[in-house]
Amino acid sequence: MVTELKTCEITLPLGKIKGLRLKTIYDDDYYSFEKLPYAKPPIGNLRFKSPQPAGPWNGTLDCTQFDLKPVQKVLQTKFVEGVEDCLYLNVYSKKLKSDKPLPVMVFIFGGAFSVGAATRETYGPDYFMAKDIVLVTFNYRLNCLGFLSLKDPSLLVPGNAGLKDQVLALKWVKQYISHFNGDENNITVFGESAGGCCTHYMMCTEQTRGLFHKAILMSGTIYNYWSNNPPADFAYRLAKYHGYKGENNDAKILKYLQGVPPLQLVNYNLVTSEDRRNGLVYAFGPTVEPYVTEDCVVPKLQLEMAREAWSNENPAMLGGTSFEGLNMYPTFAAKSKPLNISILDPPRVLPYDVTVNNTEEKSLQYSKKIAELHFGKTTTSSEFLFNFLDYQSYKAFWHGTDRALHSRLTYAKAATYLYRFDFDSPDFNFYRKKFCGNVVTKGACHGDDLSYLFLNSDSWKLDKSSPEYRTIQRMIGIWTSFAAKSNPNCKEIAEVNWQPSSKEQAQLVLNISNDVKIINLPEHEKLQVWNSMYKPESLY
Q1: Domain span at residue 83?
Q2: Of the residues 34, 192, 289, 324, which is catalytic?
Q3: What is the arithmetic mean of pLDDT over 348-377?
Q4: Number of domains making up the chain
Q5: Does residue 461 sit within a domain?
Q6: What share of the chain is helix, strand, coil (3-state, %, to 5)?
């Protein structure tokens, strides 16, 4: 994928580092520095705890390659991999010297707070390096290692260690990015799926005030039903699963879990069908912390945090793909008939916050309304399956994005831009291919926009006259233009005049397909039905 030209060195206040000068797949020069430690290894007594800043080093740190993944259990294969000592970041700079420092873009990867890594295998910087940009990617702790929560204040494990990793990474960027020719006063944070949700948390927590200046939320916000874990006893359940025989005592549970090997620790099966009916998607994810500490990231309900967010003063861009729910295909392809029977079960059909805030009778009325909306004219099992996947697009993704948009339009003073990724390639929409194989050959799946922002291990050099290459140019143009000047309009989409969203015309969206147009959001009418299940004060 890359051709090494020569090594280069930079001296940071922490010590010297050695990186590489490389060429991208399209022959653009850039500088690469990988595996920079931003935190001490979160091992031993630091497991589950808030990250501690990395200290200085002696000699020259080799930052020429990085392939470490945080400890994780791969969702599809159930294979367990990764290392606990994972808190490193990568810096890719187009130029180390220029008249003005370069805009900085910091990416937070997604993966259901359970999988993923900031490696070239998935997030190669090549496309971004066509522009005058500094790109930063980083690892953070996942699963129970990143999101275990205990109620005993004396133990200092309130949860959200993975989010606190992100805060520390942003502090590192703010402090040191000028040494890579990055502009510390022009930093954009962006993320996709759980990474989009994390980006939204970074926008809302006081811990990050002043650390960045704009944000892009891709297919994930704190309004998505999977963005917050309701309180549960998963720490105790996890300990028992791994052989703990004692009582439900936080101190004893912590001591026991700190002794379980990391790869074994994430290899569990704890979430029951009843948990899922109660709104739980996974055992460990972001949660409202049970007590407030000096570095607390989520002190109260996300709804309240978004209303009062410091980032309401800052520009934002958000959106998603046109068929988000295709990522659910491998889960539901074999279950279309059972799902058809259970479609009126309110806890399964409705967002968690709708069922808990309404009577059973009212919830049943709402579930019938949603069933009619998405399945009313369904006649075949195949048709039902794709209607179900479309329904998942709304429940899991677009409804949260819509709520976040309206929150911004209500409380933010800065511009908010809405996009919809609808480009459909037979062989370059890698996430549809990953989730659907060759069975589903059309549609922009959840994650497919990443195919046109990052080089990954499945990518190849495209003909520059191809629609796929043109889409990469458009996506990179939009993303980097927004990062550089808080406005996504650029020469790559000169055919449109993309204006910020407004309350009066909130349905307008930039649709990125074979062409780029401002259209009425195709999901708008159905989203109005989803919104009708909420009282105005609890919608955003």
Answers
A1: 3-314
A2: 324
A3: 88
A4: 1
A5: no
A6: 40, 20, 45
